[in-house]
Amino acid sequence: MTDHVLVEADGGSRGNPGPAGYGAVVKDATTGEVLAERKAYVGIATNNVAEYSGLIAGLAAAAELGASTVDVRMDSKLVVEQMSGRWKVKHPSMQPLNAEAKELAARFSRVRYEWIPRAENSHADGLANEAMDAGREAEKRPEAPKTVKQDRVSPVGWTGATGTPTKLLLVRHGQTAMSVEKRYSGRGDVPLTEHGKQQAAAAAKRLGAMEGLVVDGEAAPIIASPLIRTQQTAQAIADALGGRVETHPGLIETDFGDWEGLTFTEAMERDPEFQTSWLSDTSIAAPGGESFDGVHRRVRKARDELIAKYGGRTLVLVSHVTPIKALLRMGLDAGPSLLFRLHLDLASLSIVEFYPDGNASVRLVNDISHLS
Prior knowledge:
Blueprint (H helix, E strand, L loop, with lengths): L3 E10 L4 E11 L5 E12 L1 H18 L4 E6 L2 H7 L11 H11 L4 E6 L6 H18 L4 H10 L1 E2 L4 E2 L3 E7 L4 H4 L13 H15 L5 E2 L2 E2 L2 E3 L3 H14 L3 E3 L16 H7 L1 H9 L11 H19 L3 E6 L1 H12 L5 H4 L7 E6 L5 E8 L5
Parallel strand pairs: 1-4, 4-5, 8-13, 11-12, 11-13
Antiparallel strand pairs: 1-2, 2-3, 6-7, 8-14, 9-10, 14-15
Helix pairs in contact: 1-3, 7-8, 9-10, 11-12
């Protein structure tokens, strides 16, 4: 968790109004370390809409990081002055965006706004231009008039979310010998049992019957943790969809360190006080392992990288309990207690959508109807 962050945001429109996009970067205010990046194409819009969209995305990312104090730096005089309360928001199209940004800002103990010259905002400006370039390329595809333009400029449902979401189908791997015995199974590379392979096949059949996962003969991207149990599960899905499996190390399970292979009871007998503390504080790492806060940061970075690469598409992510819970937690904007209150079965399916304006929608959690 980072208490004090710096948000740099920018937006642009090639035509004003014209093809528009935004970029936002969140940095540790003390070290300058980049903690999160956001960028998205927003369709045909003005510079001001794009600038506000960048601010909203940056504030949402800062909230996900658990920041309490935020310094915002932008080269939009209008947004800085309106958010600081010195200028009135007169234009009707700006009022909802201003209200959304203020609602996000109210989550922090303090937000300070500063205008900076464009030359000092090159990181966010670069992200915004990348988004506009990617958006224009997407519009050249035959399906673009139906998907990119219509979806990106109109509100989606009652949530008020705007833009084309990136839909993540989250599949937990099938059964292993470690899961049968209820042992801590993090980085240990164990294969699926025969029953686990049957579960993977059932999940694959379920996804193979879903609409939108194969478009014009091309399967949706299938990205898995590097461990064999997720690779086997992902390969079953790839075979069903006619796709291929990619690997992302950010989707790997928690490193349980010295507790790897132990049952809960064995770990409690070995380190009773430490495990009690570990279960009540997500910043504490298992002995020789990784904290749940560390997992959350890692998975959030992986999510951002995947959205930057595949934004607006449907992805199949095959992973483990903790990373999937982390993604659902981001979608729900929930606290760390969700990790201990949410149950995920083997080979279960969950669905979460992340919108370019920072909104999200959890569509499904722990569905195992395909296993019955």
